[in-house]
Amino acid sequence: MSTSQADSKGYVGKFVRTKEGRAPLLGKAKYTNDYTFAGQLYAHILRSPHASAVINSVDVSGAKKVAGVRLVMSGREVAEYTNPITDYLDPAVFGGKSADIRPMAVDRAWCFGQPVAIVVADDANIARYAASRIQVDYTPLEAVTDAEQALAEDAPRVVPEWDDNLLMYVPFVFGDTDSAFASAAHVVSTEVGIHRFSTQPMETRCYNAVWEHDTESITLYATSQNPHPLRLVLAETLRMPENKIRIIASTIGGAFGMKMHGHPEESLLCLMAKLTGRPVKWVESREECLLIGAREQRHYLEMAFDDEGRMLGLRDRFYANLGAPSACPGWGMAFLTGLTMPGPYRVRDIDVQVHAVNTNKPSWNAARGYGKESTAIALELAMDHAARQLGMSPVELRLKNFIRHDEFPYGSPTGLMYDSGDYGGALSKALDAINHEDWLEKQAQALAEGRYIGIGVAFELTPEGGAIPGTMVAGYDSSTVRVGPDGTVRVLTGITSPGTGNATGIAQIVADELGVDIDHIEVLQGDTNASPYGFGNYSGRSTIVGGGSAALAAQDVRKMIDKVAAALLEVDLEALEFQDGLYFGRGKPGTPLSFAEVCYAAYTRAYDVALCIEPPLEVTRTFRPPSIRHTPDKNGHINPYPSYSNAAYVSVCEVDRETGKVELLAISAAHDCGKVINPVLVEGQACGAIGFGLGGVLSEEITFDEGGRQLTRSFVDYVMPRMSDVPDITMVHHDSPNPDTYLGLKGAGEAGVGGSAAAVVNSVNNALQPLGVLIHDLPLSPPRVWAAIQAAEGGH
Amino acid sequence: MEDLLHMSALIQLRIDGELHELEVLPNATLLDVLRDEVGKKGTHMGCRTGHCGACTVMIDGKVAKSCITLAASLPRATITTIEGLQQDGEMGPIQQAFWDEAGLQCGYCAPGILLSTAELLADNHQPSAAEVDQALAGNLCRCTGYQSIKRAVHSACVRMYPDQETGIEEG
Ligand code: FES
Ligand code: FES
């Protein structure tokens, strides 16, 4: 893409804001729940109180009697009008099992919180009240909530028709691990327990389905990250043609994966609108939102090292507790955790075994990091453990084992093709940024005073922008750039913004390519009737493909405008000059033409000066990252990712021996996200991801009772970081441009969760080392840390 | 439900400068009244249990969580929502500071973050970092990791009280 017009004089690389960013500050941004229509009805969903049960009968007659109720339906009735929900990512494509996933339970509930009946009424309170009048007769069954227990021969089956509860088993095996281990001087085993936690955006999900009588079609206002693919799923589930469905994804109050589709409420609400002929809205309560889980995995790692600390082999057997089957793409995170092994390390002989297991917990959905955070947590805790066993410093051990910066592009043993990076350089930068040496001194001083300060490092590799063959995870995306006769610009993209500011980045790119003022650019996303077909927001891809395709389209439109300008000025294209919004001919006296004048001519003089182009000034282009490869190589591997952002993290904490409370004192990060379009926005995202990581390992946890009923129901139980919980974060960039993307972009947004999480855990264990305490079972909440300290002291 | 109608209360609220006389059910929260009856959609629902702060408004100059405030408990009150922070149609100094510093991302938490900042800076012209933490302790933000918010609060303070030295270290 050497024809790029973008240069250092433009907007790219600078902190710029576009006007649309003002709306939330004024209280004027329109989130999905802010839409209400004439005749608006409201839905309430009755959910299973059992983790596993036979549903003998659902008696809705009591609810139907409540004044203001318009429609009540059981799962069995809904099933008559709908097909099973199509998987976002079908496990069968990966050699796994597929289940029939219905919008509501039919005859059997397989998790706590599964929808069992729905009420539609004139207002939300009436709907809720009426739902309490529905009588459901259940026969509770024994539930299985632990992934490893779920694999026992005699474990209850989550899906009765299945032979076992193993959704998928994937081995990632390369080289000769057995010989590597046989020749090793040291073998270090580490067991890491990652708990269930969740993204919990501040805006819960909301759907408002509107039946359009004139066209017999549906418009769904939805908190959706992927409007076009959602439309296809709805078409199949609702047995409607796709072109009769329109999705409008309005401003989104944070998504982080949770608003990727497959949720039962999406099709349910559409069906309710169709059957009542009126708009029907459902707003997810926080309690419902907390049902959506993620991340729970238990890893059994073994690392083989030679005498000098070089890793010779890696084994990891892990079990992901996916909860009940779901059409959402959450399960894929388990696959990704395996695929991303062995992360940033050079070891070639690996044997990684992924067990993706269904249980009677509520289902997962995608969560920022998409499984790659779990790779980082497992590997980085194990690396620290190995460093302790080998008597090396954690930094030294990592530097010895990182892929070196001159080894890129690097083919990983699982088949990924890492584009670029300088991992060792990034780690050194992160250590410098936090003043590592000073902290070592402070740590020693503190210890002398009986206080426990710890320093932890971690590294994270985050493949971003993925494309999986045969699925709607497409990797490429498209944008339209449309320049009006007055020179103003409308950009339509297939990607969406979950509140991350990617529209600003795209406006910056287009402004530079066209050479216009950024205030003349409007970016529109998320309306399937307006945007080009696109795949929305996931996997840190938005700027890579959204920005990349917008750049291509803008370059093409710019060429058209240049041609018309040259024709108007009667000069050759080579002699055409464009500066500060004005066109003139080199060596040709006369009045320059404004950008707008040329655009006007392009529209109005189609038969003379604009004969050289095909009006209107509108081009749609696609950016298909060239490094994605779906034809298997000789090892049978594909490269599903175009971009491998990476980062090093350092955490410093102090642990209170009396209470087990961890206080974070400082965090630093050296982040390689390729070329940065807007440094402040990228930094903001990285800090947000770090907040996820530290909250996840210190306080956020979703728990269940023995019968599989969820205990975590509100923010009282689900403790997310508040301002005082997040220390100052020092961010430095250590960017190596991606050779295969527009301007060298990598992804930003997913990275940060796993690396910061692991660094925090490593710092806590480092602090507790003098007490002989080591915790690899997360989260490190005060009771757990306190108990570990007590146990160690009792043992003395 | 009919019983409730007999118990409805008449309340007078001055909301962002405009007087509203409303008859409300005893169980109606201020959040629902503001959003559904008065159309103040800038005030958001994040949890309905008083923990997230997305529903924050000012009641007679003090921040409160509208989701756990019963409208009927306010026979007469002055309410400021996020929509009332503008000054003469322009962004107020706090909004401007959050704009300049890219203080927020998705903006769903904005009501609580901005109004809590407004309350803090109204009587404290030199807040320390700990005082900022405390003032914003009732507000969750999931997008930013709070770094940009701290920066924006500092900048708002400088903007409002240019002659004061703030105790907040530059972030
Ligand atoms: S909605 Fe009121 S505090 Fe969360
Ligand atoms: S900016 Fe999204 S929750 Fe604060």
Automatic annotation (TrEMBL), chain A:
Keywords: Molybdenum, Oxidoreductase. SUPFAM superfamilies: CO dehydrogenase molybdoprotein N-domain-like, Molybdenum cofactor-binding domain. GO terms for molecular function: iron ion binding; oxidoreductase activity. Signal peptide: none annotated. Coiled coil: none annotated. Residues 26-142 form the Aldehyde oxidase/xanthine dehydrogenase a/b hammerhead domain. Pfam families: Ald_Xan_dh_C, MoCoBD_1, MoCoBD_2. InterPro entries: Ald_Oxase/Xan_DH_a/b, Ald_Oxase/Xan_DH_a/b_sf, Ald_Oxase/xanthine_DH-like, AldOxase/xan_DH_MoCoBD1, AldOxase/xan_DH_MoCoBD2, AldOxase/xan_DH_Mopterin-bd_sf. It comes from the Bacteria. Belongs to the xanthine dehydrogenase family. This is Xanthine dehydrogenase family protein. It comes from Parahaliea maris.
